[in-house]
Please model this.
Amino acid sequence: MPAIEVILSGVILGGLYALVAMGFNLQYGVARIVNLAYGEFLMGAAFAAFWMFTLGGVNPILGMALTVPAAFAANWLIYRMLMSPLARRARTRDQLEGETILATFGLLFVLRGAATLAFTADNRYYDYLGEPLHILSFTFAANRVLAFAAACVIGAAVWLVLGLTRFGAALRALAIDPVGARLVGIDVRRLSALAFAGGGALAAAAGTLVSTFLSFNPAIGIEFTMKALVVVIMGGVGNMLGSLAAGLLLGVAEALCSHYVDSGLTLAVAYALFLVVLVARPRGLFGTP
Amino acid sequence: MAGAAKRFPVRATAAIGALAALVLMLAALPWLLSDYALSFMLSVMSYLVLTVAWALFSGTTRLVSLATSAFFGVGMYTVAMLVKLMPLYATFAAALAVGAALALVVGVLTLRIGGMFFVIFGFGLSEMIRQLMVWWEINKTHTMGRYVFVPFDATLIYEHLLGLAVIVFFVGWRLRRSRLGLALLMIGEDETVARQVGVNVPFAKVAMFVVSAMFITLTGALMAPRFGFINPNFAFNPLVSFQVVIMAFLGGLQRLWGPVLGVIPLIVLSELLQTEFPFWFSVLLGLVFMVIVYFLPRGATGLIEDGWAALGRPLEWPRGVTGPLVDAFAWLSRPIFLPRGVAGAIEDLWLKIAPRDDEKR
Model:
């Protein structure tokens, strides 16, 4: 396989990471919740898509019409019932981060354990659009291309909402300065809940797309949470374009590593990138030091 | 200062004597207990060292370390890899060196910058080392799993862990009376203030992190002979990090002896869950943890201290004995079923889920 094809397959993977990271960024950058259980929603959506496809023959892309709103509602409830008591009792932002990390760490084990109980720990996959697709002189699996295209559409939609609407402007204001946002009349609590729920919805969308071309089991959540964290830190907290660039970078680095070294080292690559950014640009690729 | 007599008053001597007697009693246990009870005590002792060592760093600086399983696994796996090449005690020393070096690198890289980086890095560290080890073993050494067969039985492991526990408690006790310990407590309270009064914040954090990690690594190394067969997936189990954090929080972080109150109930609970409901283990443990975070933020020691303080206060019954009776009567005579109808009940439920901003402030 020529290097250019490896890089292109990395871009396809990176588009998906960017989507995963955007959702995480909404939760961390806007709602200020470090959600270690984030990947569990991705895993849940992957299983939902799997069962709908194998039992009912439902097209995974159409199935998103069901799973994405469900994840939105579930995350909204989680924010209202579990996170806002912590937000109310925390005195500083550091304290809130600490407490939400602990609470979502517990939630991670609850959700993962529940999924293992319900679905067993077996690896699952289903065959959806597995045939090769020839684009220019390159060959890709059709499901990967579809996942990339869907990730682009969803990502662009989120970016347009954030950039062009009044609602999006309020979210961006909240990400930059929560106190100032309250002063200019933004309902911080309501918008935080919506941002958190929106992040969960993006996780579900990403999970559905992942399930079309990767095998998965109840334990995959942690790995995606880790990668989302790494990408968000690399791209800058609250910076959506940064997430996009960092996600693509991670995808390409991973594709290069799995082609030239070993496919079992993906997390190590993410960590290596994370370390480089940590040492060279602690405020992220686009942050002002 | 009136010399030695003043420095070692009768109470302190008695306390030291009592502690020494306790340690001797604990040391005699392997000859008194059944095999099952001894293996139970082994888990208690190993988690006690892990939790106290964890609290040395995280309890003072308030930086939650999720890297416990990484160091525990490094200790265990280093012993597994080297045990055929050198004497057992040399492998323990090697494990200690590897753990300390890893902690130093992680600490210097992440603690310098900010709390979040450290937490995130620790969260994935164990998983990354596991991946690296699996890759290394499959591609370079062509082994999947290693045997540790050495004449180091449960009794010996237990006695070594007990010794380690004594050391870690002693270090914790000294720490709270040392410059470094006070500096760390100050960092936990307010890092900016600590910096202002001249504390070398990065040094204090990294130093304590390395010490804490060394205890954790050594515990992992000591436990290696217990399991006999070890592979990376077994050694780097994220549940260890999770259980240590739960135990520390259940016990409470304000007191050095807090972990004792957290470790024992949770080991009992784990044993029960694993034998009675093995498949529910992770779910129930997660739920227990969330209950602690939400309802017991200061842990069991906090409860005990509150209870102690309440005992010292006069009872507060400003309205006398009749007051509670009047309240009880009023409560009994209120309309019970849906005083505001179904719509009212739905409205109340909704307000509970989504309280309006102006209400609960």
Q: What stands out?
A: The longest helix of chain B spans residues 35-61. The two ends of chain B are 53 Å apart (CA to CA). Residues 62 and 188 of chain B are 5 Å apart (CA to CA). The beta strands of chain B are 146-147, 229-230.
